[in-house]
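Give me the fold.
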Amino acid sequence: MPNLTINGERYDFEKGETILQVALRNGVEIPHYCYHPELSIVANCRICLAEVWAPNPRTGVLEPGPKLFPTCQHPAADGQVVHTDSPKAMANQKAVMEYLLINHPVDCPVCDQAGECHLQDYSYQYGRGQSRFLEDKEKKPKKDLGPHVLLYSDRCIMCTRCVRFTREVTGTGELMVDGRGNHEEIDVFPGIALDNELSGNVVDICPVGALLDKDFLFQQRVWFLKKTPSIDGITSSGDNISVEHNEGRIHRIKPRTNPEVNRWWITDEVRYGWKFVHREDRLRLPTIAGRDPWALEAANEAWTTALDRANELLEASVDAGRRAALLVSPMLSCEDSFWLSRWVRSVDSKAITGVGPIPRHGEDRKFPGGFTVRAEKAPNARGVRRVLESGGAGVLDFKAFVEALRKGSIGVAVVTGNYPSEWITPELMDALGETPTVLIDTLPSALGSRSQVVLPGAAWVEKEGSFENVGGRLQAFERAIAPPDFARAEAQIALDLIAQLDGAMPPVFSAADTRREMFASGLGGFDSVHEPPAPGSQEPDMIYLEL
């Protein structure tokens, strides 16, 4: 295999790779702004220039190149020796940083990008200690580009990542470069706002604080945020995301790179669709029809009473010779489905099971860059069906489940929701009629007001589990924040209900342990669920001295 040497270390490479790509793949830092692995290579920021020596094809003698080469664009070749830390390369890095900061406002204390800004990092690592520019800076306006994005033109370094994104990934072409020299600006074409389904991604790929998210503007300092790996919980795409939160509240959701699923992008729907998690009217305490939930002495007593009542309804149905029915929402995880199914079938082995309504909006839309926006708005319809079918009986779709309710043989219905918006249909309400109902949901609904027992569940960011996306890929996610007040994950509720039946102490729900049990029980695929990568260790670059 061909190889090259970068700063004294030898690395193998594949034909067609550039020097920068080889370096990044091997964890070697070469400063860069304009390069992005999903965008065309333009080599216009010039900070990645390096000294490249190569063997003379006639003599085989190693000779220096006539100039510095952009490593993002220059192809790797066998026997090359690359120096990014030579005097010439370092002089270029300092010159580029000095040029970029000439008109930059240096307003880091009020910039949302502070703390994750490449301009800050590279200025510290490769820049000069002070500016030699004494003239007045060029002032440029702030611009409202669309419903989600603001442009602070003063901070822009003209890497053109955003322009290339709208041309190559979305194909919508809203952004352009206007002007020349120090009068260059990013702008939208007249009368065309930056308003496509992926518009928020331009904020993620901006290496400085020029493009900002209106929703996150001045909300939180990034160094206070904790990042939890998760999976898109409101569509069927299974996009890999990071939930960024602090003190129990989510502040933003950003994409997590996965070339096999969502590449580097997420839709605006996923980016901003989590707001229902913090709705003021979330269900927070179990309720029982005809009883004041606040009359009980403590939350534990409310849960104990509600769990007992739910089990009584199931047992009474079986004793009367009627069947139980379980409707599992496609918004729930595979682990939730497993334990809820086990609970209901432990009381009624012939219980009817079904998958809740699967929302769809329009048709799938594929962008020129290869990203697909899914019309199906349920993260785990396939996973729920896979788990329920393992019980041996057929699994009904929502329409068939409603028809089964109308036949009148159902003695009790266990219904789960967890949708981000209203989902109860008139057909379901009519079919349930006077049937005793146990509802597990996160938001208030018309069904909740007529159910015998209502148990508050948890949103996907408030628990751990796994989803199966539209491509059949099983992916695990972690809990980011705790559920509000006394709400619990659906899997934990099911474990509590089983423990109440057995008169035992309920175990604490573990998604990993549940997946092992699911695989042991014959459920295929749960031995190889795609887990989020383990977080890497990060060493501070500050030198600490013991006094």
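The chain has three domains: 3-98, 135-278, 287-520.
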